[in-house]
Specification:
The protein is mostly beta strands and about 140 residues long. It is built from one helix and eight strands, in the order E-H-E-E-E-E-E-E-E.
Length: about 140
């Protein structure tokens, strides 16, 4: 295990509006505020989502598109530096709302998503700058603690 103590610089509530891109909106907010590390959680509804998983044996991501609106049962993520810029790493559990899919969950890594109705984000910014560095054995940029 690797660890690092962090201190809170500030907490923010963000309300993303219908049609906004989730990952770029959070990234742009962090750039404007000079936030290079933090964590967040969110609730709301998404559409045009691409949700996936990492296959370690292939060292590659798989994903699936979910074009329709879905309820966000849970969304969580962190912000760390990649090449000196804030990088948003996000996972979500989404719940179907279309007839026949009501309350059926899907979940995993969020590659892309647009806000379907609203997305309420609670973001905690840290004072410390945490970076991601490539782990060749895993094939991913992991938190450098």
């Amino acid at each position: 295990m690797h660890e690092r103590e962090v201190t809170v610089r500030g907490e923010y509530f963000l309300r993303l509006e219908r049609g906004e891109d989730v990952l770029s909106s959070i990234t742009d907010f962090c750039k404007r505020k000079g936030i290079l590390s933090g964590s967040f959680r969110a609730i709301g509804a998404l559409e045009h989502s691409k949700i996936g998983y990492y296959d370690l044996s292939k060292k590659a991501y798989g994903n699936r598109d979910y074009p329709g609106a879905m309820e966000v049962a849970s969304m969580t993520g962190n912000i760390a530096q990649v090449d000196g810029q804030p990088f948003v790493h996000c996972h979500a559990v989404l719940s179907g709302i279309a007839p026949g899919t009501e309350n059926q969950p899907v979940g995993g890594h969020v590659f892309e998503a647009k806000v379907a109705v609203t997305l309420e984000v609670h973001l905690v910014a840290f004072n410390e700058n945490i970076a991601r560095t490539l782990d060749g054995g895993i094939g991913l940029k992991l938190l450098d603690l």
